[in-house]
């Protein structure tokens, strides 16, 4: 299997592999579960897919599920990984670890709709945006300066935010755990598309808002 062809790639945004919380349909947020057996295989597949690609830097969230995925990529690319707390998922506080239900998603949505209000035990959506956007911008700027793509390994909420940044639509480029999004230049404009999905889930069909 090969990556979908995208020229002028600036940054590959990789969603970490699956965890038991993903599999059980629970909120993750700032919790720190490891990859499950499927997630480990997904991390290995992503590393294999990206192995032929020249990469300048690998950045990742400091959460275990992201660092383990990034370490697999780093082994193949023979590059160190740069961990950052700033790349953590949206901190959903008291929702972390709880089952995603219609009721719990509606309760969380209240805080998403009021982005300046802190999620109980967590952070506000605006605070999340203010720490994620500079990270993505830096990864893209590094690629523009050195002419070699970077990789960011993080969470679904970061993929949501890239969609918001580029398209004002947080659901526009969603991928499942182990999926890859490419940020690239198209006629001089920075755009993004999913280039690898580990499942056949069509884009925008899941309403997931956090990782």
CATH topological fold name: Rossmann fold
Cα separation of the termini: 26 Å
| Averaged pLDDT | 93
Helical content stands at: 25-40%
Provide the CATH superfamily: Phosphoglycerate mutase-like
What is the count of DSSP helices, taking H or I runs of 4+ residues?
6
The radius of gyration is 16 Å
The largest pleated sheet is described as:
6 strands, mixed
Number of domains: 1
Taken as a percent bin, the fraction of beta residues is 15-25%
The neighbouring-strand order within the major sheet is 3-2-4-1-5-6
In a nutshell, what does this entry contain?
The protein contains six helices and six strands; from the N terminus they run βααβαβααβαββ.
Please give a structural write-up.
This protein has 211 residues and is of the alpha/beta class. Strands 3-2-4-1-5-6 form a six-stranded mixed β-sheet, sandwiched between helices. The protein is 37% helix and 17% strand. It is built from six helices and six strands. It has one domain: Phosphoglycerate mutase-like (Rossmann fold). The longest helix has 22 residues, at 125-146. A hairpin with a 2-residue loop joins strand 5 and strand 6 (189-196).
């Amino acid at each position: 299997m090969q990556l979908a062809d995208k020229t002028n790639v600036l940054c590959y945004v990789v969603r970490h592999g699956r965890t038991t919380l993903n599999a059980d349909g629970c909120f993750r947020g700032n919790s720190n579960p490891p990859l499950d057996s499927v997630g480990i295989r997904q991390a290995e597949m992503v590393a294999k897919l990206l192995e032929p690609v020249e990469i300048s830097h690998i950045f990742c969230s400091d959460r275990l599920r992201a660092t383990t995925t990034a370490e697999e990529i780093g082994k193949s690319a023979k590059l160190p990984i740069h961990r950052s707390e700033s790349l953590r998922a949206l901190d959903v506080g008291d929702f972390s670890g709880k089952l995603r239900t219609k009721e719990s998603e509606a309760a969380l949505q209240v805080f998403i709709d009021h982005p300046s209000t802190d999620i109980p035990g967590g952070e506000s959506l605006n605070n999340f945006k203010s720490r994620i956007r500079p990270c993505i911008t830096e990864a893209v700027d590094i690629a523009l300066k050195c002419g070699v793509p970077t990789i960011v390994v993080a969470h679904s909420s970061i993929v949501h935010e890239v969609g918001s940044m580029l398209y004002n639509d947080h659901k526009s480029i969603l991928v499942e755990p182990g999926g890859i999004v490419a940020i690239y230049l198209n006629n001089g404009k920075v755009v993004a598309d999913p280039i690898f999905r580990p499942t056949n889930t069509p884009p925008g069909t899941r309403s997931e808002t956090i990782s």
